[in-house]
Structure formats: C-alpha cells, structure tokens
Design goal:
Length: 469
C-alpha cells in the first residue's frame, strides 16, 4: 500500500505547476498533481516519459494519495486562490503535513497564512521561485522561508530540482516566516531596476549613436562575454536577433512600447519606503513602466514639446564602452539597493537572512542571475554585516575607475533629450552617498521654521528650536 503513495503533491497544473512537477519527476520523485479541471488532471497523467506521475481532480484523493508528512506545493495565482487552496485542502491534511505556496504572494499575506495554517498543527511555507517556464522545468532558483523543521523535509527536493552553480544548489533555507516571499519580492524589484537600465542602453544606442538593430545585436552579443554578462543581457541579445514571424524585420520593432506588470516591483518600492531604505533605481523601474502606459499623451506631446536636436560626434566605439561601464555600475547599484533592503528587513522582521547565501542562490536559475553575483556572494561571505555593498573596497575601486563613464553617458543623454532615469538615479545615488554634506540642514531649518520640529546641531548634543519669527 505504501508504495502506491506519492512523494510530493502539486496543486495547479498551469505552466509553472506542470513544469515544476515534471522537474521533480525527472529527479526521481513520484508526483501527484491536482487540478480542478478533470481534463487537465488527465492530461497530466498521460504525460509521456518513464516517470511516475498522476493527476487527480478530487481534493480528498489527492491528499490521501501522498506519503506523510505530506509535502504539497501550490502554484496558483497570488491572492484569493491561495486562500481558496488553504480552505479546500487543509481539512484533509494531518498534523506535521506541509503546505507550500510557490507563487509570488505578498509577504504579509504569507505571515497571516502561516498563523492560520499553524493553528491546525500544519506547516505553511512561503517559497519564492524564479526562472519562468524554463527555470521551473530544468532548474529554478528557489527561495524558501518557514520553519527549519519543515525545510528539513522539503529542502532535499528543492535542492535537487534547482539550478546548480559550481555544484552548489540554487536553493537554500533562507529564514523564518515570510523570509522566502520577501526575498523573492526584492528579487523582482532588482529585476525591474535591471530591465530599466538595460532598456536605457538600447535607447541611447538607438537614439544618440543611431546604431542599426544589427549593430545593437552585436553590442549585446559582445557584452555576454564581459562583466555585465547576465541572463537579462543574454535574452536581450537574442531578442535583437528575433525576426518577426508576421512581417519583415525585427519582432521588437513591432512590440508596443507599453510595459505591463504584476505588481511585485511596486511592492518592493512601497515596502522600501516603509523601511526608509533608498531604492531609487527600483523606483524608476516601476515609474517608467507607469509612464510607458501614457502612450497617447506621449504621442501628442512628442509633437508639442521640442527637445534638443540629437548630435553625437565622438568615437562611437569608445562611447559604447562607456555605456557598458555605466551599465555595470548600474547593475552593482541595483543589487546594492536590494541587498540593503534585505538586510534591514531581516533585522526588522527577524528573518535571519544571510546575504551571501541569497547572492549564491541567485547565481543560477533566476531572472537576475549574473556573473557579478559571484563577487557579491564573496564580499558578503567575507563581511556578513556590511551595511551596504558600496562600503566594500572592490566596489569603491570600480566606482573610482568607471564613474566618469556613467556620468558621461548620463550627461550626453540629458543633453540629447533622451530619458535615462535609471542611469541618472544610479549616478545621483552615488553622488549623494559620497557627499559629506547634503543640503538636509536646510530641510531641517525649514521644518523647524514652519513647524517647530527641532533640529540637531553639529556642535552640541540634543534637539534645538530657534525662534525664527
Ligand atoms: C521570475 C519573475 C516572475 C515574474 C514575471 C512577471 O523570477 O521568474 O520575476 O516571477 O512574475 O517575470 O513580472 P512582472 O509582470 O511584474 O513584470
């Protein structure tokens, strides 16, 4: 009888659920899938290949068909569907069983669900999974949070099915409560920042340097062999090689310049505000998606507000190197902002996060994987309590040798009227952090002037108020 029980259960056999299930089956696990729709469950049972999988559409049969402690992972859309699964499945589960949310749930929802599910003596884990369809099928990056004893039971599965870098799994226990979903949220915030700054490199090459699609394709190709090498640069290179299947030319040129979002980047920005952590490049990633939505206004205003004529007379090759250096710094700063947020959140929410571990599991499988993460992991390994990556000498050296390039590209874009808010935010962030004096003293004086809010003095301890009137 025991032999007929399955090792792990997957709820939701959509793109992510199906691919995670097949990935687990490839690694020798017997997988029972559940989908409300009988046809989907049946199709799952009929998946070709010498693997032990079955699909059912009865909640009871699904739960009873699993080995104990039951390990059930749901891959359903964030929000109401997660609560629906909890309501429908937990009545059949038994103490010690583990219910895992593998979607992009908001971390406070995960905390609430943990309390709710633990009342029934069950475990609830919030697990971030990155890598899209391909990652899910052949090795994602997995960011698990929850109780360590629950991780002990499911960790070996995650570590087997995840991507591997240098023989190390891109999955590791991150911390308690909603640590996994919080980390995934920040991962996505960094994803927004990186996508924004990469898109700006395209705009500068197209509008200022007037490079052709083929030339831009070649530039991104060459960058895949440089220090900016990353998944997002690799796919950008491929995108510049993809011909339209419905007409002549590059598909990219037929895609509407209006960027959508599911909200995880926005959550990162909102939460950073609550934590008082500056993440301007992530903010710009979100904001520029919002500006992109105003297509008709942009069309209209492009005819009514004139900009400077584009003129570029320098050496294009040299300038492309500057763009690449500017991008490299922008990548460093995007991770810097996200890591600073994780550090503060870990202290605030008692997650117990190790930033080196997070950098390590982001080296493979996920959307923000990049060569640079090897170095970031080393830096945090050497100094786990670093307040910000900017404080590390190796990054100070990078800035000292290349900041002028970022400045030149940003300045050239400003003079030519090409928006590069991501690059500019990186430059302003660095310039602010390297400023011994910020004009915040004036802000304090103004606050005290109109609201008696008091200020600190540089020459005496305590809070002071001045009689301005
Ligand atoms: C990943 C991605 C993924 C994300 C989508 C869409 O790590 O695999 O981050 O989780 O949801 O890429 O995100 P947006 O719709 O917000 O751009």
């Amino acid at each position: 009888m025991r032999d007929t029980l399955y090792d792990v259960g997957i709820i939701g056999l959509g793109v992510m659920g199906m691919n995670i299930a097949l990935n687990m089956a490839d690694h020798g696990y017997a997988v029972l899938g559940y989908d409300r729709k009988e046809a989907k469950a049946l199709a799952f049972s009929q998946t070709p290949g010498n693997i032990r999988i079955k699909g059912v559409s009865s909640v009871k049969n699904f739960v009873k068909g699993l080995k104990r402690p039951r390990k059930i992972m749901m891959l359903v859309p964030a929000g109401g569907p997660v609560d629906d699964v909890i309501d429908a499945f937990t009545p059949f589960m038994e103490p010690g069983d583990i219910l895992i949310d593998g979607g992009n749930s908001f971390y406070t929802d995960t905390d609430r669900r943990i309390s709710r599910v633990e009342e029934k003596s069950l475990h609830f884990m919030g697990v971030g999974i990155s890598g899209g369809e391909q990652g899910a099928r052949f090795g994602p990056s997995i960011m698990p949070g929850g109780r360590p004893e629950a991780y002990e039971a499911v960790g070996p599965i995650f570590e087997k099915i995840s991507a591997h870098v240098d023989n190390e799994p891109c999955a590791a226990y991150l911390g308690t409560g909603s640590a996994g979903h919080y980390t995934k949220m920040v991962h996505n915030g960094i994803e927004y920042a990186l996508m924004q700054v990469i898109s700006e490199t395209f705009d500068v090459m197209r509008r200022i340097l007037k490079l052709s699609d083929e030339e831009i394709h070649d530039v991104y190709g060459s960058w895949t062999e440089s220090e900016v090498d990353s998944y997002l640069i690799e796919i950008t290179h491929h995108i510049f090689g993809a011909k339209d299947d419905r007409s002549e030319g590059l598909l990219l040129n037929k895609i509407m310049d209006v960027a959508a979002q599911k909200g995880t980047g926005k959550w990162t920005s909102q939460n950073a505000m609550d934590l008082q952590i500056p993440v301007p490049t992530i903010d710009m990633g979100v904001t520029m998606r919002h500006i992109s939505l105003y297509k008709s206004e942009r069309e209209d205003l492009s005819k009514r507000i004139s900009g400077p004529p584009c003129s570029f007379k320098d050496d294009k090759k040299k300038f492309i190197n500057k763009i690449r250096n500017g991008l490299y710094i922008s990548m460093i700063i995007s991770y810097t902002q996200g890591m600073m947020m994780l550090k503060t959140a870990s202290e605030r929410f008692n997650y117990g996060l190790s930033l080196d571990k997070i950098a390590k599991i982001w080296r493979g499988g996920c959307i923000i994987r990049a060569k640079l993460l090897n170095h970031i992991a080393e830096v945090y390994e050497g100094n786990p309590h670093l307040s910000t990556l900017l404080m590390d000498n190796s990054f100070v050296d990078v800035l000292n040798s290349r900041l002028q390039d970022l400045r030149d590209v940003t300045a050239m874009s400003v003079l030519n009227g090409v928006p590069v808010p991501g690059f500019a935010s990186v430059l302003m962030y660095i310039d602010a952090f390297r400023s011994i004096h910020l004009p915040a003293n004036l802000i304090q004086a103004q606050r005290d002037y109109f609201g008696s809010h008091q200020f600190e003095r540089i020459d005496s301890e305590g809070m002071f108020h001045y009689n301005w009137y």
